[in-house]
Write a structure and sequence with these properties.
Length: about 525
Amino acid sequence: MRRRGDLRRIARGLRFQLTASFALFFAVMLIAFTGLFRERLIKTLNDQSQELLNQEWSTMKGYMHIDRVAVTKPLKVYWIYDASDPDETNSVTEIQKVYLVADANGHAINEVINDTESNGPAESSTYEDLGGDPPAVITKRVRDALAGKPNTPFFITRYSKSGEPFLIRYGLVYDDRHANPAPFYVAIGTSLSNNAKILNGFTWIYAGVFPASVILGLVLGWIVAGRALRSVRDVAQAAQRITGSNLSLRIPSRQAGDELDYLILTFNRMTERLEASFQQIKQFSTDVSHELRTPITAIRGQLEVALFTAKTVDHYREAMFNALQDIDRLSQIVRALLLLSQAESGQLALQKSRLNLCRALHDLVDQFQIPAEAAAVHLSADLPVECYADVDRVQIDRMVTNLLSNAIKFTPEKGHVFVRLRPRQDRVEIVVEDTGKGIPVEHLPHIFDRFYRVPGSGTAPSPEQGLGLGLSFVAWIVRAHDGKIDVKSEPGKGTCFTISLPGADVPAGAIPEVVEHA
């Protein structure tokens, strides 16, 4: 049972599948190549046999003559050659092995060899063994040849009673010694047994070579697949060495520019993202510890002071009041962290509805007029009459509130804060701009990180500066609405946040405005 499981595991392995695919491809290619080569070999052998018969046909026309011995006697076939010449004798003998001579009516003509009359017809025994040609067939072939091109050679394949194949060439021959020469039907042939032997030998050789070739292909495929997967194993071993404590480890590229290098590049980029995430988690843990420790330490200090030094009710009341302020700050941090964690983990679902952003921004600007006046900051808005979008009203209010709160907080007296709403085809742009302190360029990439606050004079941030979570909320709200946020800032001149959200083209009065809070 265990061996069967091992075999199944091997069969499912990538190396085995690559080897099997290579062997299958090799076998298919070998079969296709062999088939094409065999067809080419058959054609070559047939062409050689036809060429041989064409040569014998020319030789036959030089040695064979058809004439009458006397006027009252029938036609005779004469073979005129030098019997003392072995070359001529062999040529005539080879032709006479398989041949037939007949008149246009299909009647075989008697032959005379070396001016000695033969008792048989001008048809060899081998040709007779092939079945001969009936008169009707001969007559039709003569008629077809005369209707077409009389000198065109015709080839057919026939088999003897023993199954031996023969290639037969037939055509017309004329007696040129008469004024009106008559056509005669002549057929000669040659055995194809040698061709069959060559094909059978090739087939047996192929039958022996094919299994050996497939086995060789399997072995080579196994070796090549192993070498190809060696780099993959190196990547896997390097990946095993990467842990949370050494995420800076990178797999070196092979500089081959192939798929494996692309895999290594993708893996290294994934490791970089993991390293950044781990670093962010580590920084987040540090920030949370620091943010929670500060109010807890303050609460402890207030209570210790009250316990050891307070002597009157007013002293205890003051200590309790300060402790409650720190507890409230601690509660704000915990609530903000919980809400942000739920948002980024997908637990906080958006409740979208069709909203007129002009009305919503107008209400928010009105709400912030009082704190703006208290800070001696001029707050104004440039809004169109109508601009609709499918958004979550609560989250949009939180986003704009955070931006306005920061803009007013970091804008000096007599400064300006502007809110603009600009429809852009299928998008909507919300712009919050101020003439405040601005943000140095090196801090812009980090302002949306949790607890990140731009360093000021070097002192620790005061509670009035916020928790450093507002812009993190802004970034999440924008992403949740499939939007984009862009920030431009210059120290001493101010900051401009531009938020782009998907818009919704709605005719005036078609859909009622949504003004109430969720």
